[in-house]
Amino acid sequence: MDNSDTQSDKDRGFTNFSFGKNKTFFTSGFLFLCLWTAFCWQGLTTVVQIWYGNEIFNHGFFIVPGAIYLIYLKRDVFFAQPIKTTSLAFLVIIPALLLYVIGIAGDIQLFMHTAAFTLLPALIWLMVGTQAAKIILFPLVFMLFSIPVGEQLIPYLQKIAADGSVALLHLTGVPLFRSGLYIEIPQGRFLVAEACSGVSFFIASFVIGSLYAYLNLVSVKRRAIFVFISLIFPVLANIVRVYGIILIAYRTDMEHAAGADHLIYGWFFFAFVIMCLLGIGEFMRQSPCEPSKVGPQNATVSVSMPVIISSIAIFAGFFAWIVNISNISNSHFETRLSTLTYDWDNNCQRTDWQPIVVDPDAEEFGFLKHQGCNVKVYNAWFSEQHNELVSDLHRLFDPERFSLSHTTSITTNGLNLSVYHVVSSSGDKLSIVRFYEVDNELFTSAVKAKIYQVKNVLFGSSRGGRLWILAADGHDVSAINDSLSAISSHL
């Protein structure tokens, strides 16, 4: 840029953003980027693994680059604002750092990922100031789409898809029998599996809808309505998709829409849904407004060294806390097994149920001695060294072989337990309960067990514990009560 260009920008009130004039600003920004990368390294490595390994979150690779491009589109207005570091960003930075430490203590990846991608826009806010950050508010918030969250919605979306498709099948006179997520028609049986939940459509539609609304709609009201449509539309469309697959199979005597066909149909249908969503957006699109002229702002770049030094000191304090937590987590804790005895008598019925539990240090599986053969018991010990007692990866049953029918609750020995009633593809019924044991304390809530573990680690104690899962043949809740009493007496 020659001198005449620089003078022209100065006359229009644009900030002089050259490196030579703002060495302190650029050096501080680069330092914060390095601090963010080093501090959030564990969260960043795990989030990249999820982006790469889970097709639901492949879009995560493009979110931050996309946000940077959105900031670039706003460069004229952005550079007309005064750039000034602000301590107000500490209102977000300090809670985010604390959330990350808690995530490390409890090995809660969701907390680590949320904290990492909250810290990044918060640090940008700290560096550029509130006035300039308002101009790029959406790109900063857009970075939160990097967080791989949404799989928790899968069971709810499965149920919605099953309920909606069954209602449509009834309306069109298709005879069927439903058991949990299994839908049986005279020609065959369908399972509304996790792949049929439409969670990929839902997340992608939300991201695309939010981006489209920002780029093409001016009115706040229209933007909110379109984002709401982008959330509802894929759910309704997925109901139609599941209904269509079953209807095609019914009409063609299972010649079509069976096997891999329904997956292929699903991707074509997804493309059609996105096209329809964008068509709705075009219908709502407003005539472009004349860009507002940016008047002189006497824009400057101002860096407050006390704010910069305070930020570095805060990062250093939280980093030291993480190192201390890591030392506790890497300490050796002995594996503890229960004192229960199991009955492997051949008279015991061998149910083919078993939970899906990831990387326990030790596990036991069997029928309780002197308690009959009605309840199968599983317990596993987790030292929390490269494994996790409370984890979404653990499953009470194999979703490819069993389906959740309904949930009830029981209270026994002071414990309020959720009972998961499941059915298999062959019609077998099971009632399953789960609870956790940490420091001889029993927890029926996964959240409370995790909070107890995190508290232990934050205050320098171990966090190992045991997972208990009991399964009764045929929804026999009374047998579960008897087994819980036997187990409690040995704890």
Uncertain regions: pLDDT < 50 for 5+ in a row? 1-13
What is the makeup of the main sheet? 8 strands, antiparallel
The helix/strand class is alpha+beta
What is the mean predicted local confidence, pLDDT?
82
Structure annotation, total helices: 16
- How far apart are the termini? 75 Å
In short:
By secondary structure, this protein is of the alpha+beta class. The chain has helices at 3-11, 23-39, 41-53, 60-73, 75-78, 90-106, 109-128, 130-135, 137-142, 154-171, 199-216, 220-251, 261-284, 305-329, 446-458, 477-488; strands at residues 83-84, 177-179, 182-185, 188-191, 301-302, 342-343, 362-368, 375-382, 402-412, 415-424, 429-438, 441-443, 465-473. The protein starts with a helix and ends with a helix.
Give the helices and strands, then pairings.
Layout lengths: L2 H9 L11 H17 L1 H13 L6 H14 L1 H4 L4 E2 L5 H17 L2 H20 L1 H6 L1 H6 L11 H18 L5 E3 L2 E4 L2 E4 L7 H18 L3 H32 L9 H24 L16 E2 L2 H25 L12 E2 L18 E7 L6 E8 L19 E11 L2 E10 L4 E10 L2 E3 L2 H13 L6 E9 L3 H12 L3
Parallel strand pairs: 1-5
Antiparallel strand pairs: 2-3, 3-4, 6-7, 7-8, 8-13, 9-10, 10-11, 11-12, 11-13
Helix pairs in contact: 2-7, 2-14, 3-7, 6-7, 6-14, 6-15, 10-12, 11-12, 11-13, 12-13
Describe what this molecule looks like in 3D.
- The protein contains 16 helices and 13 strands.
- Mean pLDDT is 82; it is low at 1-13.
- The protein has helices at 3-11, 23-39, 41-53, 60-73, 75-78, 90-106, 109-128, 130-135, 137-142, 154-171, 199-216, 220-251, 261-284, 305-329, 446-458, 477-488, and strands at residues 83-84, 177-179, 182-185, 188-191, 301-302, 342-343, 362-368, 375-382, 402-412, 415-424, 429-438, 441-443, 465-473.
- Strand 11 and strand 12 form a beta hairpin.
- Strands 6, 7, 8, 9, 10, 11, 12 and 13 form an eight-stranded antiparallel sheet that branches.
- By secondary structure, the protein is α+β, with helices and mostly antiparallel strands.
- Helices cover 51% and strands 15% of the residues.
